[in-house]
């Protein structure tokens, strides 16, 4: 069996099919389950210190990955200057550390707070663990193998494009370091878990709010009168 083909060609397509089909089914038949199910009322302090760095950090990191995938030439042009290259690498590493700090706080919050722990599901822990693996393998790759932004644009961009254009080239991943192979495989794992988890709320677009009439909130308060003596 060719493990490289299994992990980086067959499994990605399985993950894509599961992500699309289950997400569409969930939106069509279980629309009220598409929610982040906020636990802010149960605990606020740790949620603030965990959610803020995690969400901002992961959003910026994914944005940079997306730019490197869609515009690899722009990454090459940026990295042509040694100063800009180091600036991108150091900024990405700092963002990953910031994301990791927020993720650790969120995990700690779910483990030590009894009320938050009571509302958590096995899928919540599985997703958080998978995200933790992605962050750790990304940090290790950035630390052990220099200038990842350049070879991401040169190797991963063509690989991802080959998957989406139905012309898979898993051989592009075959010679990458094991840590980065794990990082890539874990991305497909997260994609497969996506429709079964709270992450599905990410693609919620509240277009209905644009045409919806104004919501009128009326304060209803019962008045109590003192009985006459």
From TrEMBL:
One GO term describing the cellular component: plasma membrane
Ligand binding (heme b): 55, 65, 183, 201
Key words, A-Z: Cell membrane, Electron transport, Heme, Iron, Membrane, Metal-binding, Nitrate assimilation, Oxidoreductase, Transmembrane, Transmembrane helix, Transport
Protein's UniProt keywords contain Endoplasmic reticulum: no
Coiled-coil portions: none
Topology in the lipid bilayer: Multi-pass membrane protein
Keyword Electron transport belongs to the record: yes
Membrane-crossing residue ranges in chain numbering: 6-25, 46-71, 83-108, 120-143
Recorded GO MF terms: electron transfer activity; heme binding; metal ion binding; nitrate reductase activity
Residues of the NarG-like domain: 4-219
GO annotation (BP), single: anaerobic electron transport chain
One protein family per Pfam: Nitrate_red_gam
Protein name: Nitrate reductase subunit gamma
